[in-house]
Amino acid sequence: MSFIQTLLDKASRQGRAAVKEESDTQDAILSIAASDAGWSAELVGGDGARWQRQASCTPERNAAASAERLADAVACLAVEQPKANVARVILFMDDPDLELVDHRFAKLNNFEPHGLKEFGSQQVGGLPVVFGSLPFGDSSAREIQKRVLGFLPEEKLATYFFGLGKIAATLVAAVPAAARVLGEQSHEGGIFATLRVHGYFSTFLIANAQTGIIAMRQFSLGALSLAEAYAVEHGLSLTESSAALGARSRLPSAAIVKDGGGPEHQTATFTALSPLLQQLCENIAATLDYFRFQRLAGRPAHLGLTFTGPSLAGLDRWLADALGLQVEIVANTISASEGMAETPSLNLLEGSRAALLKMGNQPFEFSKGRFVPMSGRRSDMSARKPEEKLSFPWLDKLSHRFGARQITLTRDSLLQPFAAFGVLGLLLIANMYLLIGPAEERLTDGVFAYGNVAEASVAAIKGSAANAQDADQSALWADNLLAVGQALPPNMKLERLELAPAAGKGGAGVDLNLAITGGLPLTTAGNFKSVAVFIDQLSKDKAFSRRFPQVRFTGAGKSTDQAHREMNFHVAALSGNSR
Known about the structure:
Layout: H1 2-24, E1 27-34, E2 38-45, E3 48-56, H2 66-80, E4 85-93, E5 99-102, H3 103-106, H4 113-123, E6 129-135, E7 147-153, H5 154-164, E8 171-176, E9 191-197, E10 202-208, E11 213-219, H6 223-234, H7 238-247, H8 254-259, H9 268-294, E12 302-307, H10 315-323, E13 326-329, H11 336-340, E14 357-359, E15 362-367, E16 370-373, E17 389-390, H12 393-401, E18 409-410, H13 411-473, H14 477-487, E19 493-501, E20 512-521, H15 527-540, H16 542-547, E21 550-558, E22 566-574
Parallel strand pairs: 1-4, 4-8, 9-12, 12-13
Antiparallel strand pairs: 1-2, 2-3, 5-7, 6-7, 9-10, 10-11, 14-15, 15-16, 17-18, 19-20, 20-22, 21-22
């Protein structure tokens, strides 16, 4: 009987284990809230919550990022729930670059996506943004629906995709964590305010559920900012100072901080924390006054305080004293209803562009509440073939002979240098034909054209100079007299030159004839030959011939001068109109 009972118990245990294993592999919803110094996550299935974790840390200022904490949460899930089949992921973000405004502040007449994207880009300094909206406030039938608008730079959302890793494609909502209180199920109406204290920044939100007016501010100090100042003043590490501030209240009273404190209060703790607490109080008070007096939206009676990372003991009481509000600490947890909700409060994925999310070579677009692969955009890269090793016997012999390490060549290792040389050769050829060749051709054509122009210019200058010279030489008597002197033989001397009018003419401007009288030695033979040479030389001179076309021998005789025994000869150079 006991044997049969043992078999039944074993079968029952195996059945329960099989049911549990099947339950673990069913589709589940993962909700994660992440800030720069902590995260909270919950895995919910059909049978309720399967896994819950919450963690905080003390990173240095330069390493504090919400996307890093998100990656820590996903890594923890992979280790503790390796068989979890995550079908949907809902992300709640605390980010210093998040912007929340109401539609009255935006002054928008409609919620057309293009207009929302342009306004959101202006809010974050001109960067591309993702955006979402949420109905908030009582709206009448005659007015535009009151909504809250949220914006985040695209590059920031891309870092959260990277933090999610391989489950990023299952992301169905990216919600500003501060906007969780704007859902109808999260508030009781009226005016309410929340302060979310993170590591190195804080988010303060105040809203009026009736008018739909909100105001959100990001303050550049958080729990680790105070811990950092405390650690410097007391010589502690950041982890030690954060633990000390979280263990018990070490904050100076609000009244002392407001008054500046007397000499008895000037302790190291007061010196470290007082300036930061004063700054926090002034920022919150300024936002409350803006909401009350500029937006005319009233003043809240209570404040919800949430720590998303390390806590600060006594901060709730300090804020109550400083602001005159009722302060209540709200845990940073995710309820099961938020994870199971089909329509989260404010989803920034609704205003994300296509292909912002990529998994490998596959781009995705957000459509109908989830990411779906984009058709026609998938990379068709074929699988890479294994590298083929090439064998060269002569190379093996060389390596064996010299005792060198065996050289292994692959097709890729050879193709890459050849491809590089091929590309270089093509570039050189293209440079020769497309750049150097046409440039040299244009230079050669320019040189020849310049030479032709120069030759033509020189010829024209020479021609004009010759023409000018020829035209001017006919009017120069000096050239004519120079021609007479150059034509004289060495044994001949010039006795007389006489200009006389041509026969039968007189008056100014008439043509003149030149009578030349010269002398030759009387005893010299060949005097008449010398006279003929003289006449011939004068006739060959162009300048002389243009004025005196005819040169004639007119006679010879003895000289009348008894002191010189010589023969005189007479030559007449006749002008063009003489006969």
